[in-house]
Write a structure and sequence with these properties.
By secondary structure, the protein is an alpha+beta fold. Among the domains are: 161 residues, Chitobiase, domain 2 (2-Layer Sandwich); 165 residues, Jelly Rolls (Sandwich). It has 21 helices and 33 strands. A six-stranded mixed beta sheet has the order 4-3-5-7-6-11. The protein has a six-stranded parallel beta sheet with strand order 12-21-20-19-18-15. Strand 1 and strand 2 form a beta hairpin. Helix 15 crosses helix 16, helix 16 crosses helix 17 and helix 17 crosses helix 18.
Length: 755
C-alpha cells in the first residue's frame, strides 16, 4: 500500500507544471511536509529532522515529517531508494558511487535524493544554504547564523552536485559532538581515525565513512608494552646500548622491524584485533611518531640486499622506508588471504616519507603526510619540491593514496593558507587522488603544542569554512567564498572585516620564513605590530562595531576584538615597548643573568648532552642534539671582537645550546644572542621555552630570528618574553634546524629581567 501511494504521487507530480518558487512556510505556518518512507536508512531520517529543525528556526514553522504524504500543499521527498533514482536515470548514473545529490522540482513536489544516504543529508544542508542565508560558521550550534523570516520559498530547486573528493574531512583528535555536526553540516563525510568503537554508531547514523582505527599504533595497539615487554624485549627498538621501554619515552618507541618472530606475533595480534573492529573499510597499522629512536640493532643497521641485486644502505634516503615495508608486506599478504575485502592503512610520513625500494602490496593504502610543506606556497612549487617529489614517488608505487594534511593547525594569529589549500586540492585531483583529510585545531580549546589558545577559531574561522567548502569543490574562487562567509556572519560590517583580515594577511606574507604545520606565528605578529597593523585593525573593528550587526554577529565581532587585544603577542608588545624604553635609557641598571654569556669559560659547554629534553637543572650552559653526529663546542678567537665563542657544525637533526634560569609567572625578560653563519641558506634561531616540575610546558614558546645584521657579519636575535602561568624555569635555546651543513657560531648571549 505504501509503495502504491508513493508511486501515485510520483506519477501525479511528474505531470504537474514546474513552479518557479517552492513555498515552504507562510506567515510562520507550515506550507510543506517532509516525506521519508519507513524503509529509508537512518541518515535520511536524520536529514529530515535537520530540515525540520532549521526551517523551524528560520520561519517558526515546524514542517511535519511523515512516512506517507499528508494534507499540506507541497511535498519534500528525501530518499536514496531505487524508486526515486529510477525516475531520474541520468542523475542516478552521475551519483553512483559518491555522496553527491540532486534536487529536482516537479510541480508541488520537491525531491532531494542521492545514491547514498549521506548524499541526501548533503543535499538538505545545501538546499538550505542556497535558499536562505544560513551558515554553519563554526562548531557549536550557537554559531549558526541565519535570518528569521516567517515566510520562506525555495527559489533554487533544480540542480545536481557531485563532490570532487570522495572522502573528505577534518581530524579534531577526536571530535566533540558539536565539532562532528559542524563537519557533517558542511558536507564532510570522514571521521577521525581516533574514534572509539563505541562512536561507530554515530558515524553510521550520519553516513560517515568508517576508516581505520588508531593513529600511531604499532606499539599502542599491536605489540604492546603490557603484552610483550617482559617476555620479548627484543621486539622493541635497540638504541644506544639498550632496548627502549615504550612508557619511558616521550613518544612511544618503535619496534625492531627486522625481528621475524616479532612479525609472526604481530600477525597473531592482527587476527585478534581485526574482528573486534567491525565496520571499518580498512585498518591502521601505522608506525609510532618520530624517527629519532629507530632501532639500531645490527640487523636493523645492516645493508638491505634486494632480489634484483640492489643494495640499500643505511645512509640511503629510502633505507628505513624499505625496512618498514619489508615488515608490513608479509602482514598485508596475510590480511589479503584472510580478509580479501579489507585494506591496511599506513603512513607515508617521517622515515617512510620516501617510498621504499620494494613493491608495496596492493591492499596497503598510504596516508601521505606532507609535514615538511611550507603552507605559504602550494605543493606544486619549487618551495615544496621535497613534498611534491615524495608524493610523485609514491604515485609510482601505488594508486591508493589518502592525503593527510595540516591545513587547520593554526595559532591565534590568522593563518590564511586557504588560497594555497585550494591549489593543493586541485593538484591532488589532477593526480587522481580523491581522498583527503586534514588536522584542525579544536574549537575554543588550547592546542598547546603549537602555541594556540582559546581565540583560535575567532582568528581562523573564515579560513576553516572556506577550506571546508573546497573539500567538496576546490574549483571555486577563494575571494567569492570569503565574501560569502563575511556577508552571512557580519552582514553590513563585511567590508570592514575584510580589511581587518587583509591587514593581517599582509603581515603573514611579508616574511620569507616558511610556515610548517607547527610554525609559531611570532614573526608574523612582529611584522604586523612593527608596521602599525595593530592600530589599523583596531580601527577596522571600531568601524565594524558602528554597523547594524545582528546580535550574533556583534557577539562574534566582540570575540574577534578580544582575541586581538588579549593575544599574548599584542599584550607583550604593548608591555615591552614601555619596559624597553626604560632599559635603553638606563642599560647599566640591568644585570646580564646569563653566566659565561661570552663562552670564555670553555669547560661549561662540555656538559653531558641532554638527549631527552628534560633540561639541565642548573644555571649553566648545556648542549642538546638527538644523535651524536655533527660537532659542537668552544672555539678560540672566532667570536665577536676576536673573543671566544661556540659553534655547531652539520648536525643530522635539530641541535642547540641551552641555558636554564629560574623564573616566576608574569616576569618580563629581554633575551638576545649574536650569531654568525657561513652560508646564507643556513638557519639560526633563538628560542625560549618553559618548564616546571613536571617537565616542558608547551605554551607560549617564542622564537626570534636573526634579522638585525651587524657590520662585523654577526647578526642579532632579540626579543621580549613574559613568563606564562605555571612555569618555574626559562630555557634559552640557540640552535639550528635539521640539515644545517655549514658552521654556525654563537656569542654574547644576554638575559635581562626588565623592571
Amino acid at each position: 500500500m505504501k509503495k502504491t501511494i508513493l508511486s501515485l504521487f510520483l506519477i501525479l507530480c511528474g505531470g504537474c507544471q514546474l513552479f518557479a518558487d517552492f513555498q515552504v512556510a507562510k506567515d510562520g505556518i507550515p506550507f510543506a511536509e517532509i516525506i521519508v518512507p519507513a524503509e529509508e536508512p537512518e541518515p535520511v531520517k536524520n536529514a529530515a529532522e535537520e530540515l525540520q529543525l532549521w526551517t523551524e528556526k528560520i520561519t517558526g514553522a515546524k514542517l511535519p515529517v511523515l512516512r506517507n504524504p499528508g494534507k499540506l500543499p507541497n511535498k519534500i521527498y528525501l530518499s536514496c531508494s531505487r524508486r526515486i533514482l529510477g525516475q531520474y536515470p541520468e542523475e542516478a548514473a552521475k551519483l553512483n558511487g559518491n555522496d553527491g545529490y540532486a534536487v529536482r522540482q516537479k510541480g508541488n513536489c520537491l525531491y532531494v535524493f542521492g545514491s547514498k544516504a549521506k548524499g541526501v543529508l548533503n543535499g538538505v544542508y545545501r538546499l538550505l544554504f542556497r535558499n536562505t542565508d544560513i551558515i554553519w560558521a563554526r562548531p557549536n550550534t550557537e554559531w549558526t547564523f541565519y535570518s528569521r523570516i516567517p515566510s520562506l520559498a525555495f527559489t533554487e530547486t533544480d540542480y545536481i552536485d557531485i563532490p570532487a573528493f570522495l572522502v573528505r574531512g577534518w581530524q579534531f583528535n577526536p571530535p566533540s559532538e558539536e565539532e562532528f555536526m559542524w563537519a557533517t553540516r558542511n558536507a564532510c563525510n570522514w571521521t577521525d581515525w581516533s574514534i572509539s568503537p563505541g562512536q561507530v554508531k554515530r558515524c553510521q547514523a550520519w553516513g560517515h565513512v568508517l576508516e581505520a582505527f588508531g593513529g600511531h599504533n604499532v606499539v599502542g595497539t599491536y605489540i604492546t608494552e603490557s603484552g610483550y615487554w617482559k617476555t620479548h624485549p627484543e621486539y622493541f627498538a635497540y638504541y644506544e646500548g639498550k632496548r627502549l621501554q615504550p612508557s619511558t619515552r616521550i613518544a612511544r618507541s618503535h619496534l625492531c622491524y627486522t625481528n621475524r618472530n616479532m612479525i609472526r606475533d604481530f600477525i597473531k595480534e592482527v587476527d585478534r584485533i581485526f574482528p573486534s573492529r567491525s565496520g571499518a573499510i580498512c585498518y591502521g597499522i601505522r608506525q609510532e611518531d618520530g624517527q629519532l629512536e629507530l632501532c639500531r640493532c645490527p640487523e636493523c643497521l645492516a645493508d638491505i640486499i634486494l632480489p634484483g641485486g640492489r643494495v640499500v644502505k643505511k645512509e640511503d634516503a629510502d633505507f628505513r622506508s624499505t625496512q618498514f615495508f619489508q615488515f608490513l608486506n608479509p602482514i598485508a599478504e596475510h590480511v589479503r588471504k584472510k580478509w580479501p575485502d579489507r585494506l591496511i592503512q599506513t603512513y607515508g610520513y617521517g622515515f617512510t616519507e620516501p617510498p621504499p625500494a620494494v613493491p608495496v602490496m596492493d591492499n596497503i593504502e598510504i596516508q601521505y603526510c606532507p609535514i615538511f610543506k611550507d603552507v605559504k606556497h602550494p605543493l606544486n612549487s619549487e618551495k615544496n619540491s621535497r613534498s611534491r617529489d615524495s608524493l610523485s614517488g609514491w604515485l609510482k608505487k601505488t594508486n591508493k593514496i589518502f592525503v593527510y594534511e595540516y591545513y587547520g593547525l593554526s595559532g591565534e594569529y590568522p593563518r590564511p593558507c586557504d588560497v594555497n589549500t585550494l591549489e593543493d586540492m586541485r593538484y591532488y585531483l589532477s593526480k587522481g587522488i580523491t581522498r583527503i583529510h586534514s588536522e584542525i585545531a579544536k574549537g575554543d580549546e588550547k592546542r598547546k603544542n603549537i602555541g594556540a589558545g582559546k581565540n583560535i577559531w575567532d582568528a581562523n574561522g573564515m579560513y576553516y569554512w572556506v577550506m571546508t567548502q573546497a573539500l567538496w569543490n576546490p574549483y571555486q574562487d577563494v575571494g567569492t567564498l570569503r565574501n560569502e562567509y563575511l556577508k552571512r556572519v557580519y552582514g553590513p560590517a563585511a567590508d570592514d572585516m575584510r580589511r581587518y583580515f587583509k591587514e593581517m594577511e599582509a603581515a603573514w606574507n611579508a616574511t620569507d620564513e616558511p610556515v610548517l604545520w607547527n610554525t609559531d606565528t611570532q614573526k608574523s605578529w612582529n611584522t604586523f605590530l612593527k608596521r602599525g597593523g595593530l592600530a589599523r585593525c583596531r580601527q577596522f573593528l571600531k568601524q565594524a562595531e558602528m554597523k547594524s550587526l545582528s546580535p550574533l554577529g556583534r557577539k562574534m565581532l566582540k570575540r574577534v576584538a578580544a582575541g586581538l587585544n588579549e593575544n599574548p603577542h599584542v599584550r607583550l608588545y604593548e608591555i615591552s615597548e614601555k619596559l624597553l624604553s626604560d632599559y635603553k635609557a638606563n642599560p647599566k641598571r640591568y644585570k646580564n643573568l646569563a653566566v659565561n654569556s661570552g663562552f670564555e669559560k670553555r669547560s661549561d659547554v662540555y656538559r653531558k648532552n641532554h638527549l631527552d629534553w628534560t633540561g639541565s637543572g642548573v644555571q649553566n650552559w648545556g648542549f642538546w642534539r638527538a644523535f651524536k653526529e655533527g660537532a659542537y663546542g668552544p672555539v678560540e678567537f672566532e667570536g665577536r671582537k676576536e673573543s671566544d665563542c661556540v659553534y655547531i657544525h652539520a648536525p643530522t637533526t635539530n641541535a642547540c645550546y641551552l641555558y636554564d634560569l629560574p623564573v616566576k609567572s608574569g616576569e618580563v625578560y629581554l633575551v638576545s644572542i649574536y650569531g654568525r653563519q657561513e652560508n646564507a641558506d643556513d638557519k639560526m634561531s633563538l628560542g625560549i621555552g618553559w618548564q616546571n616540575s613536571g617537565g616542558w610546558v608547551y605554551q607560549n614558546f617564542f622564537t626570534f630570528a636573526f634579522d638585525q645584521p651587524q657590520p662585523d657579519d654577526w647578526m642579532l636575535a632579540e626579543g621580549v618574553v613574559v613568563v606564562p602561568e605555571n612555569v618555574t624555569k626559562l630555557v634559552f635555546m640557540a640552535g639550528v634546524p635539521k640539515g644545517n651543513k655549514a658552521k654556525v657560531f654563537f656569542d654574547d648571549a644576554a638575559i635581562y629581567k626588565l623592571k
